[in-house]
Amino acid sequence: MTVARTPLPRGLFADDALPLYERTAARLLDELRATGARTGDRLPSERALSARYGVSRVTLRAALAELEARGIVRPTSSRGWFVAELGAPAPAAAAPQVQGFADYAEVNGLTASSRVLSATVRPATVPEAEQLRIAPGADLFDLHRLRFLDDLVVVLEHNRLPLAVCPALAGTDFGKASLYATLRAADPPQLPRVADYSVEARHPTPRERELLETGDTMPMLVATQLTFNQEDRPIELTVQVYRGDRYRFRASITNQA
């Protein structure tokens, strides 16, 4: 089954399930509207906004980048951020972002951990380059991990990302760090917005049985995801092999007519 690349419908996640930067963007937009801000008004400094909302500068910049992508604020090279247009819908209400493994764990009060099996930079193959819209042979960050929730193994994950979107990927320890948090902290921020997502069931390979600690009869649910950023550019190609007893796929289906 293939899920079309469309924004997730409102109601699929509660507000507190959204990433912190997106909730911060919604709070800032609500405040701008409540105070009667107008096009051209200057926002407080990033330092002041970080203190006001109790978030880091990295989170605040990701929130501003989200509002910029929606045409609500705009930056200048030396004078900070300004209001561009307040007529656009609030980001938290319009299009929840793609949720990463660590985001899911945090929202549900679980402890996420990872064991890195390999992390390399290599040339992109022709099929990978076509999907990620990069040149064949361009630097690709290739990451294999086992992912755990509360110390229980859940998924074997293979991530591939163009190194150019976030050069810091190559020097980050993803046994501890969140991949999506690293992308959101990039300069410019890379905000996972929508994804092409497909799921299929199959028997595990011998290596998958060993790593995921399953027997011969346990089915695997294999999810393939191509994730796009706020500029509708592909930034991540991922294959996730889940234990069939520890994963459930849910989706909301709507009629747009």
TrEMBL record:
SUPFAM superfamilies: Chorismate lyase-like, Winged helix' DNA-binding domain
Domain HTH gntR-type: 18-86
UniProt-listed Pfam families: GntR, UTRA
Keywords per UniProt: DNA-binding, Transcription, Transcription regulation
Membrane-crossing segments per the record: none
PANTHER family referenced in this protein's UniProt entry, alphabetically: MANNOSYL-D-GLYCERATE TRANSPORT/METABOLISM SYSTEM REPRESSOR MNGR-RELATED, TRANSCRIPTIONAL REGULATOR PHNF-RELATED
Name assigned to this protein: GntR family transcriptional regulator
Organism: Amycolatopsis dongchuanensis
